[in-house]
């Protein structure tokens, strides 16, 4: 009996020491070691998926995510999550958190703790694990996969740059002629795990989106680039669909030799005959508006800019008689985020199309 009482006391005393002595001491040393405000704990057997799902739910306002992604100075926390089991202090390299902490007080979300500050309480490591996994999740940027060309991904890249969303790009390289080897992409294609694997794809946590327009519309909803009235949204959607038609027509011309065994020069000439009318339709659609849906920029404008830029490269001077389209391009390029992106190393000016095309390679 005495033995049982002693063991119980020992157990309670151990728990008390753990909560009141071990954790605070560990907290203190972690603070010193990492420069962080609070210690970081984790429990590695917790499922990442479970916590990322929960975090996605918490962050359905996505302000936390956006905050992070808009802030390139915020260092990755993934490095904090190594070693140890329950209650172990992670001896991380120093990641200064001031960038985040300055904004934390003003974040205005129910869980500003998702910043990664950890409180030591009776829930012990499980709550720490969640917090740390949240850190991992929201410091992991989305991935955009596409060929190492402008192609269908460029308007998406422009949107991401405009929205300030940090993204990791997987730019697949197609092999040279005559094989034009696609293995780099095909290896990933088999593992993508969606019913219609294709590029571009946009992978954000567990969410994988294929189809360029679906990606753009998702980003439009996420970053408020989808107009504010139904008629603005209709205008944006109509333009995006029209752009898709014209882009495919144009790409077919550029793939004359490879896909249609047709004479590129003849196809180009034919295309150029129709180009003024095509451009006039866009000019009429835009009218006096600064952007295609009206006063505010929408996802379709990113597609319009891209196609107009291809056209003026394909046929220099083709926009000259349409001052509103010229102004549209100039205004687009003058947007501070675009100016910055277009002069950055990430910006792809060329190639526009894959190496088997007759133009834009
Ligand atoms: N409709 C799709 C077309 C996607 C597509 O055709 N992707 C081309 C590059 S532009 C590709 O190489 N896909 C790889 C594949 O089919 O495996 C979209 O808009 O995303």
Explained architecture:
With 361 residues, the chain is mainly alpha-helical. It folds into two domains: 2-139, no CATH class; 142-342, Glutathione S-transferase Yfyf (Class Pi), Chain A, domain 2, CATH 1.20.1050. It is built from 14 helices and four strands. The longest helix is centred in the first third of the chain and has 33 residues, at 2-34. It starts with a helix and ends in a 19-residue tail after the last helix. Pfam families: GST_C_3, GST_N. It is an enzyme of class 2 (transferase). It catalyses: RX + glutathione = an S-substituted glutathione + a halide anion + H(+). Conjugation of reduced glutathione to a wide number of exogenous and endogenous hydrophobic electrophiles.
The biggest beta sheet is recorded as: 4 strands, mixed
Radius of gyration: 26 Å
Structural category: mainly alpha
How many alpha or pi helices?
14
Beta-strand content bin? 5-15%
Topology order in helix (H) and strand (E) letters? HHHHHEHEHEEHHHHHHH
CATH class of the largest domain: Mainly Alpha
Number of DSSP-assigned strands: 4
Quick one: overall form?
A: extended
* The CATH architecture of the largest domain: Up-down Bundle
Give the averaged pLDDT, no decimals.
75
Question: How would the blueprint of this fold be written?
Answer:
Layout lengths: L1 H33 L13 H11 L4 H8 L27 H7 L20 H15 L2 E6 L6 H10 L3 E6 L10 H7 L11 E4 L2 E4 L1 H11 L7 H25 L1 H5 L3 H23 L12 H16 L8 H12 L1 H7 L19
Parallel strand pairs: 1-2
Antiparallel strand pairs: 1-3, 3-4
The chain binds glutathione (GSH).
GO molecular function: glutathione transferase activity; identical protein binding
Organism: Lingula anatina (Brachiopod)
Protein name: glutathione transferase
């Amino acid at each position: 009996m005495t033995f049982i009482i002693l063991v119980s006391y020992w157990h309670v005393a151990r728990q008390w020491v753990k909560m009141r002595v071990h954790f605070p001491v560990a907290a203190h040393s972690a603070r010193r070691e990492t420069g962080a405000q609070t210690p970081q704990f984790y429990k590695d057997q917790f499922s990442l998926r479970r916590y990322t799902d929960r975090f996605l739910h918490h962050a359905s306002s996505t302000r936390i995510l956006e905050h992070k992604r808009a802030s390139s100075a915020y260092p990755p926390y993934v490095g904090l999550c190594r070693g140890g089991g329950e209650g172990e202090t992670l001896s991380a390299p120093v990641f200064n958190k001031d960038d985040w902490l300055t904004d934390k007080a003003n974040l205005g979300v129910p869980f500003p703790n998702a910043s990664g500050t950890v409180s030591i309480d009776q829930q012990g490591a499980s709550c720490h694990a969640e917090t740390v996994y949240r850190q991992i999740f929201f410091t992991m940027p989305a991935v955009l996969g596409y060929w190492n060309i402008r192609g269908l991904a460029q308007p998406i890249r422009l949107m991401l740059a405009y929205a300030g969303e940090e993204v990791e790009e997987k730019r697949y390289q197609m092999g040279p002629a005559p094989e034009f080897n696609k293995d780099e992409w095909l290896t990933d294609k088999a593992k993508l795990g969606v019913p219609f694997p294709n590029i571009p794809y946009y992978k954000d946590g567990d969410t994988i989106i294929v189809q360029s327009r679906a990606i753009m519309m998702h980003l439009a909803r996420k970053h408020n680039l989808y107009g504010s009235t139904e008629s603005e949204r209709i205008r944006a959607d109509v333009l995006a669909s029209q752009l898709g038609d014209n882009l495919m027509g144009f790409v077919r011309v550029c793939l004359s030799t490879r896909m249609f065994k047709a004479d590129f020069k003849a196809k180009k000439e034919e295309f150029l005959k129709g180009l003024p009318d095509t451009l006039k339709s866009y000019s009429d659609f835009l009218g006096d508006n600064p952007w295609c849906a009206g006063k505010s920029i929408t996802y379709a404008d990113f597609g319009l800019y891209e196609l107009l830029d291809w056209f003026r490269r394909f046929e220099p001077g083709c926009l000259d008689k349409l001052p509103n389209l010229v102004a549209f391009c100039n205004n687009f390029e003058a947007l501070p985020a675009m100016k910055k992106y277009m002069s950055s190393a990430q910006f792809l000016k060329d190639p526009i199309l894959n190496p088997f095309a007759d133009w834009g390679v």
